[in-house]
Amino acid sequence: MIGRIWKLGDDINTDILAPGGYIKLPIEQLAAHCLETVNPNFSKSIKKGDIVVAGKNFGVGSSREQAAQVLKILGVASVIATSFGGIFYRNAFNLGLPVVSCKNVDDLKSNDEISLDLRLGKIKNMTRGIELTTEPVPDNLMKLIEAGGLVPSLEAKLGIFKGEN
Amino acid sequence: MGLTIAEKIIAKAAGRAEVRPGEIVTCQVDLAMIHDSGGPRRVKPFMDKLGVNVWDPTKVVLVSDHFSPCTDAESAEILELTRQWAKEQNILNFYDQQGICHIVTPERGHLHPGMFAVGGDSHSPTGGAFGCYMFGIGATDMLGVLVTGETWIKVPETIKIDWSGIFTEGVAAKDMALKMCSVLGMDGADYQSILYTGSTIQSLDMYERMTLCNMAAELGAQAGLIEPDIITEEFVLKAGGKLDCSQKFKCDPGANYFKVHNFDANTLDPQVAVPHSPANSASVVEVDKAEIDQFYVGACTGAKLNDLKMVASILKGKKVATGKRLTVAPASSQILKDATKEGITEIILDAGANLLPPGCGACAGYGVGVLAEKEVCLATTARNFQGRMGANSSKVYLASPYTVAASAITGHIQDPREFLN
Ligand code: SF4
To answer: Residue B88, Cβ neighbours under 10 Å: how many?
Structure first.
């Protein structure tokens, strides 16, 4: 995938991504509040296909998967971070949002254009002419992404196919 | 080479003789705990769409706690949907507005040593206090468990955290947890499994052990376990749970630990975490005597029976500072009942506290008792992320029940040891 970078800092937690006060709202409305405590313009400015890059512990905190779901709804194609909260990491793949850890995110800056190859674990920063490696995504999670997330993969597993009556 | 208790439970659930860190295995789930927020309202649409039911209703525990009691029409709808789903899916272990899932589940005898369990909530490592491998998952992950009865896991490394010594009066497990957050950081365990050992741990009662395992989540761990002993057994049996001797796993002498950390309880001061992270913890002696608007005793972390006892031991015969408010939300109905029987509720009310119904309350900003813009709260909860307990500009400090109660008397952050002789 190819996308433009949105750079965030360390410890972007689930309460910042999906604030509790709005959790009852339909997901599209919740998404409007995504990251508002760190950047009130985030939900309005992020574009479809953008790639979020962050520091350590992205998605730390609650198990609420809306934290990953709002990013997906806002069009975020992937998240690259130094490290992730463990539950967020699983949630993201379940919802079909691939995320990947990369140790040197310092070479990735806001508005850089990059290409990301999940399978090979490679990032090409086209703006800066640098290549970076990411941690490999385990096979079972690559399969989830290819299936489009856990729900379609369950449909296949349980022998339920879309379009069949 | 020996195995840790986590590795033994995972191996059993995976139907294997042994497993090693890094392996990805599929496990049969012994228990799935879900609540009103991440549960029915999130999984029902997909279950209906897929036309499937829960794999085994007897292995599911459902608790209404996050939106309980409802505060508006939307939360009332969520609770109603939860009840409907329980009926539809024949979930008999349904506790409607009886307290917080992490407390109600063991209190009603659903957790016992050796279980491989998942919870639809990040504080599910609380179950590790009972010698269960229990971890939090999101709603879609839970959907997978509910329809198949299994889930995958990457076998975690085990980090051993050893505590020795006896802490002084006015210090509690919550202080141990905050201390670990400040020393190890919120990524101190990189989704690994924590094993708490040592003489301090062995001397703690189950409620205090639950506080430690609960906050394994704040250390970034997938699970946090304590080897089951006689204290565990007594609690489980009293709660009506089962004890299967073959499941009371212990770590083998030659088990492998990714890291070992040692802490000394003898020198531990009461801790306070300043906004906006549990990792910003320091001794109460070093923290500014910040002025507080709301003092909050609540949550799975800090409103169990022993937590309320700590609060009462400080408040007895004293009053909450003028112009300040102390809000107490007991973690379960059973705890409220026990606290009332022991005269604890009366002491708390006499001090001028405001008693909320059992449930998550203001902890995650979903329920009753949330904060206005710029308000400052000192809470016994586990997390003080920005905006968590209400308005975006509100601030939360974290401390033990002793410290919160003592501070409620003076109106600012206060060392509780000055109130105990
Ligand atoms: S009390 Fe707070 S931390 Fe515990 S389950 Fe409820 S919202 Fe989560």
So the answer is: 14
Of B139, B220, B385, the CB nearest to A86: B220
B38 vs A: CB within 8 A: yes
B-chain CB neighbours of A19 within 8 Å are: 365, 387, 392
Phi and psi based region of residue A61 (left: phi greater than 0; alpha: psi -120 to 50; beta: remaining): left
CA distance B339 to B346: 9
In chain A, domain spans: 2-158
- Residues in chain B with CB shorter than 8 Å from the CB of A150 are 140-141, 143-144
Widest pairwise Cα distance in chain A: 52
Which candidate, B341, B308, B305, places its Cα nearest to that of B326? B308
Strands B24-28 and A130-133: unpaired
Which domains, ranges and CATH numbers included, belong to chain B?
A: 5-263 (3.30.499.10), 270-420 (3.30.499.10)
In whole angstroms, what is the distance from residue B407 CA to residue B415 CA?
Answer: 8
- Nearest-Å Rg of the Cα atoms of chain B is 20
CATH (one of 3.40.190.10, 1.10.1040.10, 3.20.19.10, 1.10.10.10) for A2-158: 3.20.19.10
Phi, psi of A31 (to 5 degrees): -60, -30
For helices A86-94 and A139-147, what crossing angle results, to 10°?
40
In this structure, the strands spanning B395-398 and A2-7 are unpaired
Flag whether the pTM goes above 0.80: yes
Interface test with A, best of B142, B386, B388 (most A CBs within 10 A): B388
Tens digits of pLDDT across chain B (421 residues): 899 999 999 999 999 999 999 999 999 999 999 999 999 999 999 999 999 999 999 999 999 999 999 999 999 999 999 999 999 999 999 999 999 999 999 999 999 999 999 999 999 999 999 999 999 999 999 999 999 999 999 999 999 999 999 999 999 999 999 999 999 999 999 999 999 999 999 999 999 999 999 999 999 999 999 999 999 999 999 999 989 888 889 999 999 999 999 999 999 999 999 999 999 999 999 999 999 999 999 999 999 999 999 999 999 999 999 999 999 999 999 999 999 999 999 999 999 999 999 999 999 998 899 999 999 999 999 999 999 999 999 999 999 999 999 999 999 999 999 999 6
* CA–CA dist A91, B364 (Å, integer): 19
Residue located nearest, by CA, to atom 1 of ligand 1: B299
User: Position of tokens 């052990």?
Assistant: B209
